[in-house]
Amino acid sequence: MAVVLAALAASVACTSQKQVPGAPYTVGYSTRGLEIDGQPRMLMTGAIHYPRSAPAMWDSLMKKAKKGGLNTIDTYVFWNMHEPVKGHYDFATDRANLPLFLETARRNGLFVMLRIGPYVCAEWNYGGFPQWLRHEPDVVFRTYSYSFMREMKRFIGKVLDVVDPFMPEYGGPIVALQIENEYGNMQSFFGRDGDRYAEWCGRTAQGFNTSVPWVMCAQDRPPASIIPTDNGFYCDQNLAQFRQKYPQFPAMWTELWPAWFQRWGEAAPHRLSEDIAYAVAKWFANGGTYVAYYMYHGGTNFGRTAGPFILTSYDYDGFLDEYGLENWPKYLHLRDL
């Protein structure tokens, strides 16, 4: 027995020496979740959008997120922030410093779900599209439009070049990528071209040959090898049907809404902590493997970044308020869960 215990202790010691993220690792998936170095992991995720807070806040936000029970950070990539003028990129200035945001996650031992889009919605000005895009010849947004798809693919390629040092083979925090955003809500309006565009998104994502899986959220008819994920206030009721349709994929909930955004003139939305906890517990009890709070920290819509009639505050009644302070009892209740 002593020999066995000594061997187990040595094994644990060897395992603990590898810091993930921090040391190279692999990411795959099975029905039981995203797999880190071949082992399925239960990922508790919170959305923190880097353009909605000052870089000086990022380390504190992530430390509080980790203390609150999270092991993963979720963020969109905002095209109109990074390419306000066609061909002129900014991934280094102030709130556009995506590499610094990813490095902060790595330093805090947190994984990252990077949702490139590049359409993000997010109650963000123009859904994240840069204004110059509408003036491209023959462009039609989010459908099988050669002009649109050319620019979209170019930008995604640029983002992947920028974030390459943060992929798992280099010990980086990125464990999954997203293409498009809730396209299932729009696809039927475009008819056959909507179907062709969704398939193109899948082929394009796979064509980049990244070392992590790709997802499409709220996508009823996902392209091959793209993981479809769920969004909503409650999603456990969808799991039985999901298992029948997609037995090869893990059940991932990319947006659990802890409340809602606020428009000018509306009352501030709130959602009870107990209700959120119940939704999360039912999700995992029924076989869910990943959940992301949208938003964990909402932050601020600086300048003219807010979408139409959206408040400057993007508080969302999240777990960390607009200023990065813990929102009690919600923060504590879900930490305990």
UniProtKB/TrEMBL annotation:
This is Beta-galactosidase 7. It comes from Coemansia helicoidea. The lineage of its organism: Eukaryota, Fungi, Fungi incertae sedis, Zoopagomycota, Kickxellomycotina. The gene is BGAL7.
